[in-house]
């Protein structure tokens, strides 16, 4: 699944009210059709610095008694434990902790086959890579996917254009390769997930990371991750976490929510190569593309029943200050295209917290009802015109692409 992961992540509740807190959380997740990945506290330690799992066992037993379908994770950014909590845990010890948790899960029938993810390290600097290397030597077999976090820019950015610097958009590519190199050394074929991603760290920046401008970085992260084989991307966060959230305090969707919704509905997991004027645009190992016009292609989502299998979805990021024209060629040339052009709405331009789809402002119809995401049909052979500083999704209908006919 190379797309936005439908997951919820929180820390282990303390003993008072833990059961009630878990019930509320799970009921929300379940009625929303999501899957819960529960982050357990890794900083409960014994005198020898081994993980103390006593409180976790009671939590697991309670959760199992309710038959809650949960996946698990232990800790968050272990490379920062010393700085934030004055308690260091090295990679080998963390690997032992994960093996301990895996054995604990296997001892409980409900969770004997539950998924376990980790270690959710931070940006892969030298010390972090060393921690991951030690972790995988000891605990690599315990995890179903290796997770890490990526934050693109400092929370002190001062202007919207900072979100569109190609240097920042391309930084992720090298980090993915660093993680994959270590993982493939110890656990070839093991899945790699972006277990947490947001625009800036330090909780984001008001009127910047919660505006249309941040969408360029977010969509590029999804496209680049998929191109480089990252199976799942988990977003920081849905609600009430600084200014990286997807909905505001009144639960009104912000621009990245609408972008994520379009991505989820239109983009399937299978990635396709893109050729522009005879030049292959799919990133190759060791090559960084600093383009301001970025084009990604996938098979259209099989879950979207408006399109038959074999259709293709392009999503395009135009960082230029001028419009760009794209003419489809080959078997795509004579097909009807559905355009989903996402642009800022209002006088704030790219710093707007509202968006329009094909000229119509997107807003909830009521507290429970999303609006129709209506495409604009383009006749066969028509040139795609991408306005300056915009994002667009384009579904090429009925291509009958062989790669997209089957799951």
UniProtKB/TrEMBL annotation:
<dbReference type="GO" id="GO:0016798">
    <property type="term" value="F:hydrolase activity, acting on glycosyl bonds"/>
</dbReference>
<comment type="similarity">
    <text>Belongs to the glycosyl hydrolase 79 family.</text>
</comment>
<dbReference type="Pfam" id="PF03662">
    <property type="entry name" value="Glyco_hydro_79n"/>
</dbReference>
<dbReference type="GO" id="GO:0016020">
    <property type="term" value="C:membrane"/>
</dbReference>
<dbReference type="GO" id="GO:0031012">
    <property type="term" value="C:extracellular matrix"/>
</dbReference>
<dbReference type="GO" id="GO:0030198">
    <property type="term" value="P:extracellular matrix organization"/>
</dbReference>
<dbReference type="GO" id="GO:0005615">
    <property type="term" value="C:extracellular space"/>
</dbReference>
<protein>
    <recommendedName>
        <fullName>Inactive heparanase-2</fullName>
    </recommendedName>
</protein>
<dbReference type="InterPro" id="IPR005199">
    <property type="entry name" value="Glyco_hydro_79"/>
</dbReference>
<dbReference type="InterPro" id="IPR017853">
    <property type="entry name" value="GH"/>
</dbReference>
